[in-house]
Model the fold of this input.
Amino acid sequence: MPGLHERARARSGRVGAAGDGFAAASRERPGTRAKIGRVTEDRTGVGEFAVELPMYSGPFRLLAELLLGHRIDVCDVPVAQVTDAFLAHAADAERWDLEEATWFVAVGATLLELKVGRLMPKPTEQSEEDMLGGSPDLAYARSLELAAFRRVAVDLAVRFEDNARYFRREAGPPEEFAHLYPDVMEQVTPEALARVAAIALRPPPLVDLSHVQPVRVTVAEALATMRDRMASLGTARFRELVADCEERIHVVVRFLALLEMYREGQIDLSQAGTFGEIEVRLTEVAA
Done:
């Protein structure tokens, strides 16, 4: 089968050349023309399938050349629709060509890369003129600030250099110079000490608590009262249990006592309706 082997080697050479073109197009970023040119050159009869787009109708190879010449915006070309046209063209087994498929993959990848580069925001570096806003007054003010900072930097550098030769003394003063130090107790008199002591030992002012309601009854006392009454009555209404209360705080404390007894299971509580009478019954456990 020498003829079959020769055709296979020839086709492999063409596919390798197409792959080399795609690799070169992927590596080369700065030159868009060189990127598509390496993929489209020397491909006679490749990419001649027709595409129908809103801005173009004709062979895809010519569309690639128009994109190369910047006559059509790459953002206006729907790559998905072009891919569907190529797949419809390649669906026919007689038209299937590995070289054309490799070439289309290379061109499609290049178009996607170009479109992503157009759609992604590009980083911009602000110049000094942009930061100053083009105002000469602001530029002059910035120059004055810069000059002031430079003078301060020079002054700090000189001070650091001068003070680098100073070291703090860690030893105490010599005994022969002790008499030169001022006496710290010279200005202290008994009258001054008395004034300071009077301020320091003065009792704090009393806080007026006349507005605070004193607690005259505790929950423990109310519990003892409620247990005694429920032991003698067995069943009663809450209104009857608080009938002898003189102040509202006594009513609240007795209600808390009843809740404590209910929690311990000593009584049962029932109410016919909202804001109705509360019936209190002694349970068998408490009895």
